[in-house]
Each structure stands twice: as C-alpha cells, then as structure tokens.
C-alpha cells in the first residue's frame, strides 16, 4: 500500500507541476514583444489622429479651431492612451514592463514555445505512473484488498491500453 501511496503522491505533484506550467507567465522577451505590439497599435492610432490635421492647411478652414480633433476624440475614447504612447513611448513601455514583470517573476516564466514539450513530458510521466498505479491496484485486488481508483485516473492507464500520445517504452 505504501508504494501505491507514493505513486499517488508523485502523480499529485506532477499534476501541480502541470498546472504551474499551464499558468506560468510568459518570458520577459514575450512580455516585451506584446508591449511593443500594443505600443505600435497605439502609435498608429495617434498617427491617424494627426493625419486629420491636414484640414488646417485647407483654404476652406475657418478660424484657428481643430474640428478634426473634436471628431476624432468623440470617435475614439482611447485616443488619450494612443497620444501618450505616441509622445512618450519609452515611459509607457517602461511602466507597462515594470508592472508586467512584477506579476511574472523570472523563476516562474516559461516561454510559450517550450510549453508544449514540457507539458507533454509531464503528462507522459503522469500516464506512466498511472499505469504503475493500476498494476499495483490489480495486484492488491488479486490479494483480496479493496482499493479505490482516483477519480481523475487516465482511462488508458486503467484499461491497460497504450496511450496514442505517448511512446510505448516501459514506464520505468
């Protein structure tokens, strides 16, 4: 029974590791890239806003008002952020990066490109332990003991069927 408890403890740890991988923040480089893409979008909005200033050169323009600005502001309530990004890109970038990195400690970061392989490895280890667990359960039941199965046990492992996502090497 101790072996079964150990396997189940290992599975529980691996499931925690799997959850941590899924929920891990992206890398600093990916955070910076996301911020830069967003800032580029904001700069484009600001540039579109300023392109409307060409009406000021028109001989039909009366007075010194900026009618294009009133229209643009009423059309786009987020123009203020776009203008800040346009005039102070580095300041906005640095603050966004600072806040994002506070939520993403370097030791918890996992680049998106690495996640599929790492998750595959963890899930395969969980499956292999599930196979071992099922073998022990069957041995214990054959010896007359009543053993409950985990509600989240992998159906392939319980039924003794090779999992299509994992290699057929032994679970050692």
Architecture blueprint of SSEs:
Layout: H1 2-23, H2 28-51, H3 67-75, H4 79-87, H5 89-102, H6 115-142, H7 155-159
Describe this structure in words.
- The protein is mostly helical.
- The chain folds into 2 domains: 85 residues; 85 residues.
- The protein has 7 helices and no strands.
- The protein is rod-shaped and about 100 Å long.
Q: What general outline do the C-alpha atoms trace?
A: rod-shaped
The profile of the biggest β sheet is: none
Number of domains: 2
Structural class: mainly alpha
The radius of gyration computed from the alpha-carbon positions, rounded to a whole number of angstroms, is 29 Å
The proportion of residues forming helix, as a percent range, comes to 55-70%
Distance between the termini: 19 Å
Number of helices: 7
Share in β-strands: under 5%
Low-confidence stretches: none
- The total count of strands amounts to 0
Order of helices and strands: HHHHHHH
What's the pLDDT, averaged over the residues? 88
Short description:
The chain has helices at 2-23, 28-51, 67-75, 79-87, 89-102, 115-142, 155-159. The protein is mainly α.
Keywords:
172 residues, mainly alpha
């Amino acid at each position: 029974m101790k072996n079964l408890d150990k396997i189940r403890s290992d599975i529980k740890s691996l499931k925690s590791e799997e959850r941590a991988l899924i929920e891990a923040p992206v890398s600093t480089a990916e955070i910076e890239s996301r911020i830069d893409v967003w800032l580029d979008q904001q700069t484009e909005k600001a540039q579109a806003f300023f392109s409307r200033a060409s009406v000021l050169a028109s001989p039909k323009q009366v007075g010194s008002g900026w009618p294009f600005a009133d229209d643009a502001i009423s059309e786009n309530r987020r123009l203020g952020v776009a203008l800040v990004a346009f005039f102070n890109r580095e300041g906005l970038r640095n603050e966004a990066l600072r806040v994002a990195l506070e939520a993403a400690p370097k030791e918890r970061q996992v680049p998106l490109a690495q996640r599929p392989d790492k998750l595959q490895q963890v899930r395969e280890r969980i499956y292999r332990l599930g196979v071992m667990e099922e073998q022990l359960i069957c041995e214990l039941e054959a010896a007359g003991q009543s053993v409950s199965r985990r509600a989240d046990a992998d159906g392939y492992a319980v039924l003794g069927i090779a999992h299509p996502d994992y290699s057929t090497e032994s679970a050692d």
